[in-house]
Amino acid sequence: MIIDSGELDEREEALIAVTREAGELARDFFAKPIEVKLKGKQDYITEADGEVERMIVARLKARFPDDAFLGEEGGASGTAGGALWVIDPIDGTANFAHGIPHFCVSIAFMAGTELALGAIAAPMYGELYRARLGRGAFLNQRAMRVADAGIKQAVVELGWSSRRPARAYTSLVERILATGATFLRAGSGALGLAYVAAGRTHGYCELHINSWDTLAGLLMVREAGGWTNDFLGSDGLTRGNAVLACAPGLKDALVAATGVGQVNEKLERRIS
Ligand code: IPD
User: Counting atoms of ligand 1 from 1, which one is nearest the CA of 185?
Assistant: First the structure.
């Protein structure tokens, strides 16, 4: 790792504090009328997104001035390849904009190429999720563990955005239903992954999602004993990628059904 464990300890402590504070700020915005705009098809932005991200970056920059940042709203700043914070100030923005409490703040920390830390605050549920590479994943004080289920009992969340054609999504739904599993779409990729880590659902798949929506949750799934595809391969950090995360016993069935995570990348491209 490009930083030592003492430096990582400091960042873990700062990450948990700032994620909690950002969750409280998001909750304050949720309680009052705010400005909401569309930045793309069914892709929302609210004044809270910018405010929360600015607060997170200001706090972390004050403590770690040489670290780099990649945020959903603010883009990239700082030197690439070193210590990097990846920030989604509000994930589940459409829910947030419509008064639905299923949203969160998601922040990950990368040490070079290693995904080292992740935290997610779901302020309306009083939940703080966190993970550190090699040290497990926790929901509040409880250690998380993925729940293995047979495919016929499995619940798989299928994320959607207009970045992929509608027919790719409907075909994915059909292929998941054909396995005997059921699906849901709750509108926050970060919380969808955290739910897999917590054993509430058994898998999360989306044909394209951005790194700020996924990295913290991916680390949680791995640290909770789950399997994930190589999201960061093929430039996933800056361009996004397909994601599949699940309990290990479902890997073969879900890779076959979704095409995500297959060694044959041509198939991955064909279905997305
Ligand atoms: C979106 C949510 C959604 C996922 C999309 C994301 P945002 O992020 O995570 O669940 O399906 O791919 O873009 O806009 O709410 O931060």
Answer: 10
